[in-house]
Structures are given as structure tokens and as C-alpha cells.
């Protein structure tokens, strides 16, 4: 009987340790799966512009009689796809380095009022070009401890999306408010909006509500993942309120002092 109990205990022990080993390896397995998915998605995204460039170049090669001017449309195609590809590679590098904590974050005093005003002014011109109304409401003298370039990149991602997903005659606004301990930036648009089912997913890498539409605008679904990372680096919070066909608001809350 004693031997039986001994053997039984050993079996139970083996079973428990195998189960624990499996459980402790779970995060590693998940990270590996995520990495595999990232590489597969990235390769797929890079293949599309490459295929377009290759096909266009082949078409150009077949048109012996035409002058460069006559072929300008095709050359523009190559140029814009190359531009898309280089943006995509830059974004992929940013996320890969962010995963490995390889991006230096330079925390210093940032005049957020000035940054929001200056970046807003640049986008006001782009909005006007697309016949979109632009408004900015900026509290004066809002400072925080942060990385100026990264915060600028965050504003660019949100404003760029606002313009991409808002049709002509729409409106975009950026506002900066503050409380004693945090700054609140809101980028609001009257664009196509995001459905409830998609809202939780838009911060995932490569997620796009409408793949074809977003690609036409040069997007690969990485902007909001980068925005999310920048907000996290600043110990802040990003949230979305949206209604299909009415518009979206992206709200960023950033602590003024880094804890
Ligand atoms: P992309 O480069 O494709 O725009 P993002 O990561 O910035 O990638 O955004 C992910 C997806 O979220 C977009 O493809 C789009 O479907 C949706 N989205 C982001 N911003 C907005 C917005 N302001 N209005 C409507 N949809 C948006």
C-alpha cells in the first residue's frame, strides 16, 4: 500500500510539474505566435506595393514608343508606392524597436500648447486643401514632462487619420485642455466613424476597418499602435468615442509630471 501511495504521489507530482511548466511557457508561446503573425502581416503588406511597382515597371518597359512625359502617370504610381513602402518600413522598425525597448525616449519639458498649435497649423492647410473645416481650441501655457518628437508624432497620427477618414465639407477639431495634474488632447472629426465591433480592435497592429480604403490612403493599420505605444511611454491613456457616419473623437490624457 505504501509503495502504491508513493508511486501515485510521484505520478501526481510529475503531472503537476508538467502542467506548471506548460503554464509558465504559455506567455513565451503567445509572444512567439504574435511575432510570427507580425512577420507574416509585414511581409504581406510589403508585397503589395512591390507587386504594383514591378507590374508598372514591366508595363513601362513594353511601351517603347512613348516619351517619359506620356508615361508620367505610371512613374507617379511607382513613386507613390515607393513612398508607401518606405513609410511602412519606418513604422515596422518603430514597432519592432519599441518591442525591444530600443527606442530612446527623451523626457524633458514640453510646451504642449505650442506643439499642438504648430502641428495644428500644418494640418489646417492640409484640411483646407481637402475642403474640410479645421478648428483648434488650445489652452495657453500647458507644459508637461515628455518627449517632444514622440508627442508630435502622436498628434500627426491622430490628425492624419482625422483627415483620411473625413470626407469633403466635414470638420476636424483639436483641443487642448488641462487640470492640475494632466493635459487632455482631443482630436474630433465628423467623418465615417467606427462601429462598436471595431472600436476595440483599431489599436491592434495591421487592423483596418476597411482594408482597401485605408490602403488607398496609404495606411497599413500601424498608426494607432504607434500612438498607443507613445501614450503608454508617457504613462497616459488614449480612448475613442465614435459613431458610424457621424464621426470620432480620440481623447488622450497625459500626466503633466512623469511619476
Ligand atoms: P491606418 O494607417 O490604416 O489608418 P491606424 O492604425 O492609424 O491605421 O488606424 C487603424 C484603423 O482605424 C484605420 O484603418 C481605420 O479603419 C480606423 N480609424 C482610425 N482613425 C479613424 C478615424 N478618425 N475615423 C474613422 N476610422 C478611423
Automatic annotation (TrEMBL):
Please provide, in alphabetical order, the Gene Ontology terms of the cellular component aspect for this entry.
plasma membrane
Origin species = Alkalibacter saccharofermentans DSM 14828
According to its UniProt record, this protein's enzyme class is transferase
**Catalytic activity, EC:** 2.7.13.3
* Name of the protein described by the UniProt record: histidine kinase
- GO molecular function terms attached to this record: phosphoprotein phosphatase activity; phosphorelay sensor kinase activity
Q: In the record, what lineage is assigned to the organism producing the protein?
A: Bacteria, Bacillati, Bacillota, Clostridia, Eubacteriales
**Span of the entire protein shown here:** 169 to 427 of 427
GO BP term, example? cellular response to phosphate starvation
Catalysed reaction(s) here are: ATP + protein L-histidine = ADP + protein N-phospho-L-histidine
Q: Which UniProt keywords apply?
A: Kinase, Membrane, Phosphoprotein, Transferase, Transmembrane, Transmembrane helix, Two-component regulatory system
Q: What are the Histidine kinase domain coordinates in residue numbering?
A: 41-258
Q: Where is this region: Disordered?
A: 240-259
Q: Which residues cross the membrane?
A: 1-21
Where is it predominantly found?
membrane
Amino acid at each position: 500500500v505504501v509503495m502504491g501511495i508513493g508511486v501515485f504521489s510521484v505520478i501526481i507530482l510529475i503531472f503537476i510539474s508538467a502542467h506548471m511548466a506548460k503554464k509558465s511557457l504559455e506567455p513565451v508561446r503567445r509572444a512567439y505566435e504574435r511575432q510570427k503573425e507580425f512577420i507574416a502581416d509585414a511581409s504581406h503588406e510589403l508585397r503589395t506595393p512591390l507587386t504594383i511597382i514591378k507590374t508598372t515597371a514591366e508595363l513601362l518597359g513594353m511601351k517603347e514608343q512613348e516619351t517619359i512625359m506620356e508615361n508620367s502617370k505610371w512613374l507617379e504610381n511607382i513613386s507613390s508606392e515607393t513612398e508607401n513602402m518606405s513609410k511602412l518600413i519606418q513604422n515596422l522598425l518603430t514597432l519592432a524597436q519599441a518591442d525591444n525597448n530600443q527606442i530612446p525616449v527623451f523626457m524633458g519639458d514640453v510646451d504642449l500648447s505650442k506643439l499642438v498649435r504648430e502641428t495644428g497649423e500644418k494640418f489646417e492647410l492640409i484640411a483646407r486643401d481637402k475642403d474640410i473645416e479645421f478648428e483648434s481650441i488650445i489652452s495657453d501655457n500647458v507644459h508637461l514632462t515628455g518627449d517632444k518628437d514622440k508627442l508630435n508624432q502622436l498628434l500627426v497620427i491622430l490628425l492624419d487619420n482625422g483627415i483620411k477618414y473625413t470626407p469633403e465639407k466635414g470638420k476636424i477639431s483639436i483641443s487642448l485642455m488641462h487640470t492640475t495634474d494632466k493635459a487632455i488632447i482631443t482630436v474630433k472629426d465628423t467623418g465615417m466613424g467606427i462601429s462598436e465591433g471595431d472600436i476595440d480592435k483599431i489599436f491592434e497592429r495591421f487592423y483596418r476597418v476597411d482594408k482597401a480604403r485605408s490602403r488607398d490612403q496609404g495606411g497599413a493599420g500601424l498608426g494607432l499602435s504607434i500612438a498607443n505605444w507613445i501614450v503608454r511611454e508617457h504613462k497616459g491613456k488614449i480612448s475613442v468615442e465614435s459613431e458610424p457616419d457621424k464621426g470620432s473623437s480620440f481623447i488622450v490624457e497625459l500626466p503633466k509630471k512623469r511619476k
